[in-house]
Amino acid sequence: MKWCHCQQPNHFQISRKLQDKYADLIMFLFSSHVFKLVTTKDYRRHFLKQRGWIIALIMFMSSFEIAISQNQTPQPESTQVLQLHYQDRHVVMDNGIFQLTLSNPEGFVTGIQYNGIENVLAYDSKEDDRGYWDLVWNFPGKKTKKTKGTLDRIEATKMEVKTQNDELIELSFSRTWNTSSTTAVPVNIDKRFVMLRNSSGFYTYAIFERLQGWPAVELDNIRLAIKLNKDKFHYMAISDDRQRYMPLPDDRIPPRGQPLAYPEAVQLLDPIEPEFKGEVDDKYEYSMESKDIKVHGWISTNDSVGFWQITPSNEFRSAGPLKQFLGSHVGPTNLAIFHSTHYVGADLIMTFKQGEAWKKVFGPVFIYLNSFPKGVDPLLLWHEAKNQTKIEEEKWPYSFTASDDFPASDQRGSVRGRLLVRDRFIRSEDIPANGSYVGLAAPGDVGSWQREYKGYQFWSKADENGSFSINNVRSGRYNLYAFAPGFIGDYHNDTVFDISPGSKTNLGDLVYEPPRDGSTIWEIGVPDRTAAEFYIPDPNPTFVNKLYSNRSDKYRQYGLWERYSELYPDEDMVYNADVDDHSKKWFFMQVTRKQANGGYNGTTWQIRFQFDDKMKKLTGNFTLRIALATSNVAELQVRVNDPSANPPLFTTEQIGKDNTIARHGIHGLYWLYNVNVPDSSLRLGNNTIYLTQPLATSPFQGLMYDYIRLECPDSINYLTRS
């Protein structure tokens, strides 16, 4: 197709030049020397001694440029032209800053022209493989072990202009399910694209709807995927400390790359850029928790151009703030995952019964492009994108969307209160739940938000006083849920809160009493729903991602499940609860042991501890609290002082399909078990608790513990720590 170039009026060019002068000055302050000058005392002292004349010159030039700029009179912003063009089977949205080309009527993103780059997308790919919404679905019972369901690239059949004026354009690309169809997903889908005047990017969202009477269906995955020009975008940034130059997609293809234990993990044997030789690339090494997915993307360092996805709210994502999703990875690919089963498993398959109606809006997300003048460090585009993210968060919920299914702020409500924790074995007074996550989700049971996917969730982090404020809540019926770092279990308020437009609900003080029967005899770990505090070994030097070398999040390295067998080739881990340090001794995942013949064995860990004479008078049941951070096709059996007892004192039976171990995670679904330990099973002197994971057909079966605690019988009641 032929690209549209719209000539801008002279006053717009002047305005843009003036903006560039401002940008030059502002970005100069972020250049390496000046940034260090402002932020580093020692560097500032050295610089002033050695380069005083340079400072004087810089100050003079900066003041001069500001004076010149202040004497310029920029033209009104309203003179920018927002245009919509029809070309062949495409439609082009153009605001003078960039052009967005969409296939008509399918609604695929086929081109983005920006800052002199004809197309930032993977132009050598097919038009339906550059930018698109897709989903994976299935009719119940039709999926086989060899398939993950049907991939649907959501090809629309109708394009409609919803809004077109001087301020914005909103386009709809929709398709309606044909009730006579037996091969299409029974969901109506409306994809929206919005361009604003003076905006360096576009917004996109989608409305999914099922009507009453429609057939049952299962949805596994819903996402927006954008594939960028691999010749330009080589630097990826997903957080302040997770960014790097990335390999090319060609490096993953044999013979340059060698697949490892599963297709996503590839060792780079002969990459185009030799600096990546020997490294492991796996998209799951770059997954993120929902609460942290605010901005991520790519930088073209040669062009000083950034491409970012900004998510101002995660209200539309499934399974709460800790649910992990993919983001950016080698491609260069930029993903917005709205729903997936990753790190949870089958519990998060969206299952709709025969006749069940449903509607949900996914998004909007903002696709943002930025650029710097030549000479400014292009990696600082990340910081500018973070600033834009704050702007988008302040604008949420957006007021410009045309769909009534996305309510503005005056159509939403709010809930506030204060959460306190009551544990008399820690402190005599209630404890403010500092850092706790408090959220509204569909009415359910304790912890049900982890598996909830059909509705919306709204979460807030409590301050040091335990106070929380949950704003911009859609109208609906909710329960209040919470979990607090440092304490096991979940808070659940089973009151059904009806949120209506403009409602302001003040809940006052709420008290969470975590599970507790008696004082602590010993504990292992920290109750934070992850296994991050335990011993995480260094990876096999043959399989390394350099980004995670010598870091606290080195659990993201490939192949750590194999390190257990190397550290414990014959006997399993033995942990002395009285003297051992969990960060140095407790292996962070209980996995299978690989055998010489290629098979696997289950493993049994031991917790050893002593009872002295003071324990003689204790009678009744002791309580063993076991919080699991994840489980994958595993079973936990508990025995006390008899490793061969059959049946065991307690078993979870088979639980979990999180696949966290293979996907380099540190948590998945949270599980809490309370095991009664009869006093008759314990004895004076040495005692041993045996934790057995017997299922062993794969290297990826196993458990991660969050926290373990043994409590006295409830007849003992005193503070155990201050």
UniProtKB/TrEMBL annotation:
Coiled coil: none
EC number: 4.2.2.23
Annotated ranges, domain Rhamnogalacturonan lyase: 434-507, 520-710
Primary subcellular site in the record, as a coarse category: secreted
Claim: Ribosomal protein is one of the keywords in the record: no
Keywords of this entry: Lyase, Secreted, Signal
Lyase among keywords: yes
Pfam family, one: Rhamnogal_lyase
InterPro entries to which the protein is assigned, alphabetical: Carb-bd-like_fold, Gal_mutarotase_sf_dom, Galactose-bd-like_sf, GH-type_carb-bd, Polysacch_Lyase_4, RG-lyase_II, RG-lyase_III, Rhamnogal_lyase
Reactions the enzyme catalyzes: Endotype eliminative cleavage of L-alpha-rhamnopyranosyl-(1->4)-alpha-D-galactopyranosyluronic acid bonds of rhamnogalacturonan I domains in ramified hairy regions of pectin leaving L-rhamnopyranose at the reducing end and 4-deoxy-4,5-unsaturated D-galactopyranosyluronic acid at the non-reducing end
Signal peptide: none
Classification via SUPFAM superfamilies: Galactose mutarotase-like (SSF74650), Galactose-binding domain-like (SSF49785), Starch-binding domain-like (SSF49452)
Superkingdom field: Eukaryota
Compartment(s): Secreted
Family as reported in the entry's similarity comment: Belongs to the polysaccharide lyase 4 family.
Protein name per UniProt: rhamnogalacturonan endolyase
Protein source organism: Camelina sativa
